[in-house]
Specification:
The complex is a heterodimer of chains A (about 600) and B (about 425).
Chain A lengths: L10 E6 L6 E6 L9 E10 L2 E17 L5 H10 L14 E12 L21 E3 L3 H9 L7 E7 L2 E9 H7 L1 E4 L6 H14 L4 E5 L6 H4 L8 E6 L3 E2 L4 H11 L5 H12 L7 E2 H16 L11 H32 L6 E3 L15 E6 L5 H20 L8 E5 L2 H4 L11 H16 L1 E7 L7 H5 L3 E4 L5 H10 L5 H6 L7 E6 L6 E5 L15 H7 L4 H13 L8 H8 L27
Parallel strand pairs in A: 9-17, 9-18, 10-15, 10-16, 11-14, 11-15, 16-17
Antiparallel strand pairs in A: 1-2, 1-6, 2-5, 3-4, 4-5, 7-8, 7-20, 12-13, 18-19, 19-20
Chain B lengths: L8 H13 L4 H8 L6 H22 L3 E3 L4 H7 L5 E8 L9 E11 L9 E12 L15 H24 L4 E5 L19 H8 L11 H14 L3 E6 L7 H12 L5 H13 L4 H8 L4 E3 L2 E3 L16 H4 L5 E6 L8 E6 L4 H12 L9 H10 L3 H21 L3 H12 L12
Parallel strand pairs in B: 2-5, 5-6
Antiparallel strand pairs in B: 1-7, 2-3, 3-4, 6-10, 8-9, 9-10
Pfam families (chain B): NurA
Organism (chain B): Microvirga terricola
Protein name (chain B): DNA double-strand break repair nuclease NurA
C-alpha cells in the first residue's frame, strides 16, 4: 500500500534549501504538480523508542519558475528591437520550478487505510524525494479514515478530479459556514451544492432570500428527491416580545424626530393596544389613531400637547405605513410575475406560534424578501430568527434543529464601519452564532462583500468556503478573520475561476483548494438573467394610455404656453411702495438696534 | 594635427571625464600620484587626451577603424538554421588543509537560432578534471609541482582548448565557436623547469590521441597541438576577453606601425610608450576613449608569446614549440557606448566580419553588460558555485577525520583535529618563542 512513496513514477521533485516544521521548498519536475496539490515526503522522525518512518503531508502553496540563463535585460532588448527570441542564441530551456509547500501534518502509519494527521515535530530532510500521492491515499487522508460521519460532497480537488472533497455535515449545521466570493465567483453554485446535500439527509433549512436566488429549489423540487419546498412571503406581524423591533423600524423608517416628538411617540406606543399577531400596518394605523385621540385630549396629558408635535409624529407614522404598504405591494407584484411560472407563495406562518410550519425535516422554507428595503428585510429576519431560535433555546423540542441561510449577509450583519450597528438583525444573529451550536441552529452566511460584514460574527463561523475575491479590502478582511488562511492562500483568491475556491475550518481536516460541482439540473428554467437589451428593444408605449391621452388632448386642448413676459409678470409680486425716513441708514429706522443713551 | 574625421578634442576630454567619474582611471591616477606633483590629475588628463588623439588620428586616417552596423531585425532572421557554440570553464574554489584539490569543468552551449523544439539547444559538460595535486597517484599531471596555482591555470587553459576541439569532433556542424577568454594564451610561464607533463589518460582526453611521448604530453606541445588542430579546421573560433587585463601589446603594435610608416618618430614613440607605462594604461582603456558604438579596429596579428624583444625570456627547452604558436588575429570591438571594448581573438585567415557581427549582435542582447549573451549563458552553466566547493571541503574533512580515527595513532588523531579546527593564520601555527 505504501509503494508509491518509493516509486520513481510518483516522484515529482527533491527537497532543497532550509526546511522547517511548517514549510519546505522543493525543485519540481516540469509539469508534475500544480498550485494546491497535496504532496508527500518520507522522512525519519525521532520517537520514544528510536526513529520511525513517517510521511510528511503538505500542500503546494506557491510555485516559482526561474530561468537564470535568460537575463532580464535581454528580454528588454528583444522587445525594443522587435526580435523573435527563437531567432537569437538566447536560451529558453534551462528554467526550473521551485515549489513552496505548507506542511499539513505527519502520518506515522504508512498504511493508507488509516491516515491520521499529527503535528510535525521534525523537519523534512533536504534532498528527500517529494511524491504525488495516489487518489486513494489522499481520499483517506481527507477523511482520516473515518467513514461513519455524514459527509456533504462539495466537489473535487482543483486539478485532481479523482479526489473528492466533502464537508463534515455536523460541523456545518451546528458550527456555521461562511461562503464568501465576489459577484460571479460562484456563491450560489456553492450554496446550492451544500443545500442539496443537506436536503438529501432531510435537514431542515430556512432561507432568507432577498433576490429570489433560491426560488429554483421550488421549481426543481423533484430533482431534489421530492423535498418539501415552501415559498413564503413575509407578513410583518407584531407580538409583545418583538414590539421593540417594530418600534425601532418605525423610528428609523420615519422622519427624524425631535426629542419632544420622540417622547410623544413613546407615549403613543404606551397607550396603544397591541393585539399579538396583528400586522405591522394595522399596528401603525392604531398608533395614528392614538395620536389623534391624544391630540383631542382623550388621553393622559392630552391638554398639554403641542399640536405641531402630534402632527409631526402622525406624519412620520403615516409615512412609514405608506412605505411598508408600498414595499408589500412591490413584493406582491414580484410574486405575481412568478405565479404564471408555477411558483406558489403562501404567507409566512407565525414563527412564534407555528414554528413547525417553517422548520421541519425534509423541508426548505424560502422567505422571499424581494421588494422590501434592507431595513425592513433586516427587521423581518430578526423577528423570524429570534422566534425560531427561542424555540430551540427553550429545549421544548417544538422544532427540529435547522440551518438558516442568510444571503446578502452584509445587509443583515453589517460591520461597524458601515455605521449600521443598530440594524435589527445584527444582535439576533450575533446571539444565534454565539449560542447556536448548543441548540442546533446553524447559520450559513453568504456575502459578496466580506469587508462589510461584522467581524465578530464572521469570526464565529468555524468553516469558510472562500471563492474568487479580488477586492484587496475583502481579501485582507478574510485573511484577518480566517485563522488558518496563509498569505499564499490569500494571494491565490483572485486567480480562482467560477466555482473554484478554498475550503477551510472544522468542516475539513485542512484547507483544500476545491472545484465545486455544478448542479446544472438545479438551474431554473423559468427564472434566468433577464435580457434587458432585448426588453428595451421590444418595449413600446402602452396603446391604451396613448389613446386616452389623445382623446383628452382633443376634448380639452392644452393651454398655449405662456409668453416669457407673462411668466415674469406672474412670478414677481408687485414691489411695495417704500418711503425712507430722513436719517435712516442701511435700511434700518433711525436708532433701531442702538442702545438708548443713559 | 592634420588627420581627417578624427574625434574632436572636446569629445575625447568628455569621454575621459566620464570614465574618471566611473572610476576607470582611478587606479592609474593613484599609482602615479605618489611620485608626481599636486597637479598630477590635470596633467594626466592632458597627456591622456593627447595620446588618445594621436592614436585616433593615426588609426582613422589609415582606415584602421571600421564600423559594424547593429541591425538585429535583419541579422537574426539571417542566422536561422546556423549553429553556434559557446564554451567556458569553471574552477571550484576549494581550500582544504593537506590537499590541493583541482576541480575543473568546461561547459558548452550549442544553439540553433530559428529552430524550435528539443534540438534547438544543447548543454554539455564537455571536459572535466577532478584531482588532488598532492596525491602521488594523480590523474591529471604525472608529477607534482610547487606552484599549485600554475598547475590549476594550465589545466584550465588546456581543458578549455581541448573542449573546443572535442566539441568540433562531436558536434560537427558548428558555424562559429566563441570561447570566454583569450583564444591563445602565453605559455612561457608553464615552461619552467620541473613543470610536469599530463598523464597519458589526461593527454588522450585533451587531444584524442594516444601514445604521446613524455615530451609531447607537456603543456606547451600539447596546447600547441590542440590549437593547431583547431586552426586547421578552418571554422570560426574566437576568444572574447571581457576583463581588461592591463596589457598594451595591441597599442604597442600600432605605435610600431606608425613608426614604420613614418607617421611617428622614434623619440616620440618612446615618450608615448613611457607615458602608457607610467600610468599603466591598457589597450582597453585607450581604445575605449577612441572607439564609438559599433566601431572596431582592423584586426592585427599579434604574437601572444611576445615580440622579438621578449623571445629571450622563452624557456630554452621549449623555444622551438613556442615559436610555432599561431598568431592571434586581434581586434577590439565596442558593442555599445557605455561598455568598454571587447578584445576578440581568432586565427589568421578567419572571416572577421562574420565573427564580429556575431559578437556585436550577441553582445547587444545584453545592452548593459555588453558581452556575448551565449558566453554569459555558458558561464552560468559551467560556474562551480561556492556551496558546491563548501560541500566538497566538508566531505573531505569528514573523510580525513574518519581515516585518522580509524588508526590507533593518537598523534595522527590529534594532528588531524588541530589541522581541521584551525585556519592557517591561527595562533596554533604562530612561531613559538
Amino acid at each position: 500500500m505504501t509503494d508509491w512513496i518509493k516509486s520513481n513514477e510518483r516522484r515529482i521533485g527533491t527537497v532543497v534549501g532550509d526546511a522547517s516544521t511548517d514549510t519546505y521548498t522543493f525543485i519540481l519536475k516540469s509539469f508534475s504538480a500544480k498550485l494546491g496539490d497535496i504532496v508527500a515526503t518520507p522522512t525519519d522522525v525521532p520517537g520514544h523508542a528510536g526513529t520511525y518512518g513517517a510521511i510528511i503531508w503538505g500542500r503546494v502553496v506557491g510555485i516559482n519558475r526561474v530561468n537564470p540563463f535568460f537575463p532580464a535585460e535581454a528580454a528588454q532588448e528583444l522587445s525594443e528591437q522587435d526580435i523573435n527570441l527563437l531567432d537569437t542564441v538566447l536560451s529558453t530551456t534551462r528554467d526550473y520550478l521551485q515549489a513552496e509547500v505548507l506542511i499539513l501534518g505527519a502520518t506515522k502509519n504508512m498504511d493508507v487505510t488509516n491516515l491520521r494527521l499529527s503535528p510535525v515535530t521534525y523537519p523534512v530532510k533536504p534532498s528527500a524525494g517529494v511524491f504525488s500521492p495516489p487518489a486513494e491515499a489522499i481520499r483517506v487522508l481527507l477523511t482520516g479514515g473515518d467513514n461513519n460521519q455524514v459527509k456533504l460532497r462539495l466537489g473535487t480537488l482543483i486539478g485532481r478530479k479523482d479526489v473528492d472533497v466533502s464537508l463534515q455535515a455536523n460541523k456545518i449545521v451546528s458550527r456555521h459556514l461562511a461562503i464568501l466570493a465576489m459577484t460571479g465567483g460562484g456563491k450560489t453554485v456553492a450554496a446550492r451544492r451544500v443545500l442539496r446535500e443537506l436536503t438529501a439527509i432531510n435537514y431542515p433549512i430556512v432561507i432568507l432570500d432577498p433576490h429570489g436566488d433560491y426560488l429554483a429549489f421550488f421549481e426543481k423540487r423533484r430533482e431534489l428527491g421530492g423535498v418539501d419546498v415552501k415559498l413564503f412571503y413575509p407578513a410583518i406581524r407584531v407580538y409583545g416580545s418583538d414590539s421593540g423591533v417594530i418600534e425601532e423600524l418605525i423610528a428609523k423608517m420615519g422622519h427624524r424626530l425631535t426629542d419632544p416628538q420622540k417622547d410623544f411617540f413613546q407615549t403613543v406606543v404606551a397607550q396603544t393596544n397591541l393585539e399579538p399577531g396583528m400586522t405591522a400596518e394595522r399596528y401603525i394605523a392604531e398608533l395614528i389613531t392614538t395620536c389623534g385621540r391624544l391630540r383631542d385630549g382623550g388621553g393622559n396629558g392630552g391638554d398639554r400637547l403641542n399640536a405641531l408635535t402630534v402632527n409631526a409624529v402622525r406624519r412620520s407614522l403615516d409615512f412609514v405605513r405608506r412605505a411598508l404598504n408600498s414595499m408589500q405591494t412591490n413584493n406582491e407584484r414580484l410574486m405575481a410575475q412568478l405565479k404564471p411560472k408555477g411558483y406558489a407563495f403562501t404567507e409566512l406562518p407565525d414563527p412564534q406560534t407555528s414554528p413547525d410550519e417553517i422548520v421541519r425535516p425534509g423541508r426548505i422554507s424560502i422567505i422571499y424578501l424581494a421588494g422590501f428595503d434592507h431595513l425592513t428585510q433586516s427587521a423581518i429576519a430578526s423577528i423570524v430568527i429570534e422566534h425560531l431560535f427561542a424555540h430551540r433555546a427553550k429545549l421544548t423540542d417544538r422544532i427540529a434543529p435547522f440551518l438558516t441561510v442568510i444571503e446578502e449577509a452584509h445587509n443583515f450583519v453589517p460591520g461597524r464601519r458601515e455605521g449600521t450597528e443598530d440594524t435589527p438583525s445584527l444582535a439576533t444573529v450575533r446571539k444565534v452564532i454565539t449560542e447556536g451550536r448548543k441548540f442546533g441552529t446553524g447559520l450559513m452566511l453568504i456575502s459578496q462583500r466580506p469587508a462589510r460584514l461584522d467581524e465578530t460574527i464572521l469570526s464565529q463561523c468555524n468553516s469558510f468556503l472562500v471563492l474568487r475575491l479580488v477586492n484587496p479590502k475583502d481579501k485582507n478582511f478574510v485573511r484577518s478573520v480566517m485563522e488558518n488562511l496563509s498569505e499564499s492562500d490569500a494571494n491565490i483568491l483572485q486567480t480562482f475561476g467560477p466555482g473554484q475556491g478554498i475550503v477551510s475550518g472544522q468542516a475539513v481536516r485542512f484547507p483544500l483548494l476545491v472545484d465545486i460541482d455544478f448542479d446544472e439540473d438545479l438551474v431554473s428554467e423559468a427564472i434566468g438573467d433577464e435580457d434587458f437589451v432585448k426588453k428595451a428593444k421590444d418595449w413600446s408605449p402602452d396603446p391604451v394610455r396613448e389613446e386616452i391621452a389623445s382623446i383628452v388632448d382633443e376634448v380639452i386642448p392644452p393651454e398655449p404656453p405662456a409668453s416669457p413676459a407673462t411668466k415674469r409678470a406672474g412670478k414677481r409680486a408687485p414691489l411695495p411702495d417704500v418711503t425712507f425716513n430722513a436719517g435712516t441708514r442701511g435700511g434700518k429706522p433711525n436708532g433701531a438696534g442702538k442702545r438708548p443713551r443713559a | 594635427m592634420a588627420f581627417e574625421d578624427t574625434l574632436p578634442e572636446e569629445e575625447v576630454q568628455h569621454r575621459i571625464e566620464t570614465r574618471v567619474s566611473l572610476g576607470h582611471f582611478m587606479a592609474n591616477i593613484l599609482r602615479a600620484a605618489g611620485a608626481e606633483k599636486a597637479d598630477v590629475q590635470q596633467s594626466f588628463a592632458k597627456h591622456l587626451c593627447d595620446t588618445a588623439k594621436l592614436l585616433d588620428g593615426f588609426l582613422r586616417s589609415d582606415g584602421r577603424i571600421a564600423r559594424m552596423d547593429y541591425l538585429p531585425g535583419k541579422y537574426w532572421p539571417a542566422q536561422r538554421g546556423r549553429r553556434f557554440a559557446f564554451i567556458d570553464g569553471g574552477v571550484a574554489n576549494v581550500a582544504l588543509p593537506g590537499a590541493a584539490p583541482l576541480a575543473i569543468r568546461v561547459g558548452a552551449y550549442l544553439v540553433r537560432p530559428g529552430r524550435e523544439g528539443a534540438d534547438r539547444e544543447d548543454f554539455a559538460v564537455q571536459m572535466h578534471f577532478v584531482d588532488d595535486l598532492y596525491d602521488p597517484a594523480q590523474d591529471v599531471y604525472d608529477n607534482d609541482f610547487e606552484d599549485i596555482a600554475k598547475l590549476r591555470d594550465a589545466a584550465r587553459i588546456i581543458a578549455e582548448a581541448g573542449a573546443c576541439r572535442s566539441l568540433f569532433e562531436e558536434a560537427g556542424d558548428i558555424d562559429a565557436l566563441l570561447i570566454q577568454g583569450p583564444l591563445i594564451n602565453p605559455v612561457s610561464p608553464y615552461g619552467t623547469p620541473g613543470f610536469p607533463a599530463y598523464t597519458a589518460s589526461a593527454s588522450e582526453k585533451l587531444c584524442r590521441q594516444a601514445g604521446l611521448s613524455d615530451r609531447d604530453r607537456h603543456f606547451i606541445p600539447l596546447y600547441l597541438r590542440i590549437l593547431r588542430d583547431l586552426r586547421d579546421r578552418g571554422s570560426i573560433v574566437a576568444g572574447v576577453v571581457e576583463r581588461d587585463g592591463g596589457g598594451r601589446r595591441f597599442i604597442k603594435n600600432v605605435l610600431d606601425q606608425m613608426v614604420e610608416r613614418g607617421k611617428l618618430d622614434n623619440a616620440r614613440r618612446t615618450r608615448a610608450e613611457n607615458f602608457l607605462k607610467k600610468y599603466s594604461l591598457s589597450d582597453t582603456q585607450l581604445l575605449d576613449l577612441i572607439l564609438r558604438e559599433g566601431e572596431y579596429v582592423l584586426p592585427l596579428a599579434i604574437n601572444r608569446q611576445g615580440g622579438p624583444d621578449e623571445q629571450n625570456k622563452w624557456p630554452k627547452k621549449w623555444e622551438n614549440e613556442i615559436g610555432q604558436f599561431p598568431l592571434a588575429l586581434t581586434t577590439f570591438l565596442k558593442p555599445s557606448e557605455n561598455v568598454q571594448p571587447l578584445r576578440v581573438e581568432t586565427f589568421e585567415g578567419t572571416a572577421s566580419d562574420d565573427l564580429l557581427s556575431l559578437v556585436l549582435h550577441t553582445s547587444r542582447l545584453l545592452p548593459r553588460y555588453g558581452f556575448p549573451v551565449g558566453l554569459d549563458v555558458v558561464d552560468r552553466f559551467a560556474k562551480v558555485p561556492d556551496w558546491m566547493g563548501r560541500q566538497i571541503a566538508t566531505g573531505h574533512k569528514v573523510n580525513l577525520l574518519r581515516k585518522a580515527f580509524a588508526t590507533d595513532n593518537e598523534k595522527v588523531r590529534d594532528f588531524s583535529i588541530r589541522m581541521l579546527s584551525a585556519s592557517g593564520r591561527d595562533w596554533l601555527y604562530r612561531p613559538k618563542i
